Automatic annotation (TrEMBL):
CDD domains: Radical_SAM. It comes from Neotamlana nanhaiensis. Gene3D superfamilies: 3.80.30.30. InterPro entries: Elp3/MiaA/NifB-like_rSAM, MJ0683-like, rSAM, rSAM_sf. Residues 64-301 form the Radical SAM core domain. It holds the Pfam family Radical_SAM. It comes from the Bacteria. This is Radical SAM protein.
Amino acid sequence: MNPKSALKGRGAQLNTPNRFFEFSHEMRNDFLEYCQKEGEKADKNKTLYLPVFPKTIVNKVQSPDVGMAYSMNMYQGCEHGCIYCYARNTHEYWGYSAGLDFERRILVKKDAPKLLEAHLKKKSWKAQTIVMSGNTDCYQPAEQEFEITRKCLEVFLKYKHPVGIITKNDLILRDLELLKALAKHNLIGVNISITSLSEDTRRILEPRTTTIKKRLETVKVLSENNIPVNVMLAPIIPSINSHEILPLTKAVSDCGALSIGHTVVRLNGAIGEIFTDWINKTMPDRAEKVLHQIQDCHGGNLNDSRYATRMRGEGKIAEQINMLVSLAKRKYFANKNMPKLNTELFEQYKGGQLKLF
C-alpha cells in the first residue's frame, strides 16, 4: 500500500455503502486532487465517541454454533480495526458503514452497568454465563476513557454471577483484582484472541490492537493468577496465518492457556468488499491466491452463512487447517480444559447481598 494514500492506523480503507440506505457517500477523485493542491486533508481520520441509550444490554444468542447463550456489548463499532471482523456488518443497523465508520464511529452505552443490574434482578432470570464482547471488544481503546467494562465486572461480582470476556487488548490487566475476586468463586472465563506471532502480520490485520508480545504476557499473567484463559486462533486465513497454527498453539500453551478455539475466515456481507480492497492494497502479490483459497473453504464463495460449516469451512484447505488444529490440541493441550463456571451462587446474592434466611 502506498503510505501516502493509506489511512494510517486503520484496517478498512474505504466506506462501503449501507445496504439499508438508498443513497451513499462517495469520495470523488476531483475532490481528492483539489485537497492535494490546496494542501488540505480530505479525511481527518478522527475517532468519534457517540453516546447511545439502549433499553436493554443482555442479548440472547440465537446462532447454534457460536458457543455462547447470552452476550452483551458496551460498545458498538471497534477502534481496533481488524479487517476481517464479522461485527462490521452490524454497524449498518445503526446507520453507518461497515468500513471506516465501524472503526471511527464508536457508539458508547454508558448505562450498561445499570441495565445489567436491572437484568440480573429480574425474577425470571436464572444464572447463565453472559459473555462480554459477543460482538465488539469490551477492552477497546474507548474503555480507557469510559471504564464501562470495569463497572459491569463490579456488578457481576456483586451478584456472584458468571461472566465470560472476549478481548485482544492487555487493558484487561487493569482489572486484575476484580478478575481474581471473580475467579475465587469460579465466576470468570477469559478468551484472548491471538491470530499471529508476527508483528508485521498483526499490524496490517489488526492495526490498533495491542502487540502480540503483550497479548502473550496477558495470557501468562491471567493464568498465573488462576484466571482460566482460552485463546482464540481466530480467524485462520489461508496463506496469511495458516502456517502459524502449531507454533502459535505451543506459545499460548507455554503461557498457561487451558484451551484453544479457532474459526476459518469468512467474509460475509460488506466484509467481502472491504477485505478485497484491503488485500489488493496491502498484499497485491498474493491477493488473488488468498481470495481464491478463502473461496475454496466456502464452496466457491467469500461468504458462508450455513450453520455447522461456516465456522470450520469445507474442502481440502479447510480440512488441512482443521486437522492441524486437532493435532495442535493433542500435542499441546492434552489434559487441559476450561472449567465450567459456577451458576450456583447467584440465587443467594440476587437481592444484592447474601440472603441469610
